[in-house]
Specification:
The chain has a single domain (27-260), classed as HAD superfamily/HAD-like (Rossmann fold, 3-Layer(aba) Sandwich), CATH 3.40.50. 39% of the residues lie in helices and 12% in strands. The protein has 9 helices and 7 strands. Strands 5-4-1-6-7 form a 5-stranded parallel β-sheet, sandwiched between helices. A two-stranded antiparallel sheet has the order 2-3. The longest helix has 23 residues, at 39-61. The chain is globular and about 50 Å long. Bound molecules: magnesium ion (MG).
């Protein structure tokens, strides 16, 4: 056998035995580059927040309105909106382009703690308008509340998330920022939406993931969900709620990560 053939065979054997995914060149990743560099991404986020801002007075004034399909009898409750945090309020594109694979929550936590947050375009103006209209703003994030080695805090993510939101010009506090694993919550955000709906009429949902709007969107279900969501299920959930997109629900683009990745054929 020629030496070149031997080398080729060795390469095939080594590649076949490896559990490592193929090397991914983030400098060529269209999703990352689009978020980082395109004017279109900026325009879409501004468009979403401008639409939400324009709709605020109508939803505040219509006491029969809720952005939670099964919320009723909420006419006398104070009014609130719910925003996700990552890629909805703060942009983590520079982390996405530079972190050492594989992803780990502690890596994002370290980066956000050490880096001044940058806003998603349009969010600061929207939240200012919401506050001016007397609307309470809640932030529901799946950043996990969990200890980190060497950090003397059971939930350091709570403080760093509040700080990140403050860094983009939005004042909030611990009562209005809700993390996964806090108070027994899990990654299923509908549990936290229902919790807020006990005390507030929720007029808007804003996020970058289907799970920021509807329950049970993941391949791996979290309680109270029990069934894996397929790609077809996820598409059907969009259609089932067609009347809410751009009308109480405002979704932002995120081609980098999210529950959608679990629906990609393997
Ligand atoms: Mg997000």
């Amino acid at each position: 056998m020629k030496i070149t053939n031997v080398l080729l065979l060795c390469c095939i054997v080594i590649a076949g035995c490896s559990n490592q995914p193929p090397a991914h060149d983030r400098q060529r990743d269209g999703g990352l580059l689009w978020v980082k560099h395109s004017a279109e991404y900026r325009a879409i986020t501004k468009q979403a927040y401008a639409s939400a801002t324009a709709a605020l007075p109508g939803f505040v004034g219509d006491t029969s309105w809720s952005a939670i399909p099964d919320q009723t009898d909420a006419a006398d409750l104070p009014v609130a909106v719910i925003l996700d945090v990552d890629e909805t309020v703060v942009s983590n594109i520079d982390f996405q382009m530079t972190f050492e694979q594989p992803f780990a929550n502690w890596k994002l936590e370290k980066w956000t703690s050490e880096t001044a947050a940058t806003p998603i375009h349009g969010v600061t103006e929207f939240v200012a308008a919401a506050h001016a209209a007397g609307v309470t703003v809640f932030f529901v994030t799946n950043r996990p509340c969990e200890p980190i080695d060497g950090v003397d805090d059971d939930c350091p993510q709570k403080r760093s998330t509040i700080d990140d939101i403050a860094e983009v010009g939005i004042v909030t506090d611990a009562d209005h920022v809700m993390l996964s694993e806090e108070q027994g919550w899990n990654r299923e955000k509908s549990v936290r939406r229902d919790y807020i709906a006990q005390t507030h009429r929720i007029i808007m949902l804003i996020g970058d993931d289907l799970g920021d709007f509807v329950p049970c969107v993941r391949r791996k279900p979290y309680a109270p969900c029990t069934v894996m969501a397929t790609a077809e299920d996820r598409q059907a959930l969009v259609e089932k709620n067609a009347h809410l997109w751009g009308n109480g629900w405002y979704i932002l683009p995120n081609p980098m990560h999210g529950s959608w990745t679990s629906a990609v054929p393997r």
